[in-house]
Amino acid sequence: MSFKDLREFMNHLRVHNQLLEVDQPLSPYFEIGAALRYLDRGDSDRAVYFPNVVDYSSPVVGNLLGSYERIAMALGVEKDQLLAEFTSRTKNMIKPLLVEQSPVEEVVYRQEIDLMKILPVLTHHAKDTGPYLTSALLVSSDPETGERGMGIHRILVRGKNEIGIFLYNPPIRTFFDKAEAMGKPLDIAVVSGVEPALFLSSIVPIKNEKTDKFEVAGGLRGEPVELFTCGENQLQVPAQAEFVLLGQVLPGVRKEEGPFGESSGYYLTYHNPVALIHTVMHRRNPIYHALMPFNKENDLLLNLIWEYSVGKDLKEKIPSLTDFRLTSVLGMSALLQIEKTAENQPREILEYILTTNPLIKSAIIVDTDVDLSRWDDINWALSTRFQPHADLFILNDMEGYPLDPSAKNLVTSKWGIDATVPLAEKSLFEKVVVPADVMKKVSGMLKNI
Prior knowledge:
By secondary structure, this protein is of the alpha+beta class.
């Protein structure tokens, strides 16, 4: 199952009671962000729709992919098959389909552009320097070869038609470096409000810069992404988007950008390239897609991508690994479940994980009777199977993560915990369980209550 556009996915969420509508009038200046933060910390994990945005006719939708259930819905798969399907589909890429017309051309601005009057871009945190697009796709092409590229880059609205872009990752960073070396501006399109499989493809890590992420998106959807050609420089952009902004990144220009409340939970400031927007296009009654940094949605997306990108390597290197995931509850921590066969095995695995992954600052390893999806289970293992004097390992002078402010010059310490049962004492650590056949019977009876 694939969704034609953002609207179709939202309708699907409504039907399945996965879309919460907040009717109160709220401003994109802090208030919608505050609502997303409040709901994220509460019991509800539904996507949130804000139809009454103060000073704007465009509604805002957020927390679209804030649960594994909705990410699975986005791909039309069962939740327990999400990672396997995600991995399989990204290998079966499908080329995009070029179309001649697009609904995003229904309203076009080419003169006296004022971005903040057109888009309800959120200002998220108290010390943010301004409003940021945090879920927009950036599309461009190689100035030498013409090959297109797409990725997600955070964008600051600096003025009426001026934006700052955190151009950190390839391929668009590579495109800009080439254009700047030629003394030329780089043509870009900023695309907001796309269907979820296309959005997910933007964060898939690609080893080969020549890989077309629109083809990756086609694989995730199971059918081609529709692109249409627009602007004087003929950029190919998603035809079913809500907003498309066309502009140029200026060569030789950097401006201070920040502070910005990052997904790490801290404010960071950079000197970033600047772009000028010359055209804005959008659908009639467009919907603005927001993503709140430092919320659970960030963690889930990061975890999915980490499991996808690192999982194959881990399974090859660690045959005893039965389950794993990434969590930010304890910093960027890896949770690992193994079929233990030797006493030194957990330590060897912890050292491998911590020394080969800069993102991972800590790791906890448990037995197969501990459910990695339940923190009460993990805490139970820590409370009853872990002795700090013997099972806590600390590694110094390790490569750190750029968004960790405690890592000085990207150097950090890391820690690992062995919360597995000593093999010689396995009988003392047998976990209490309800008989499996009884649990199956009773859970079936209570399932729909």
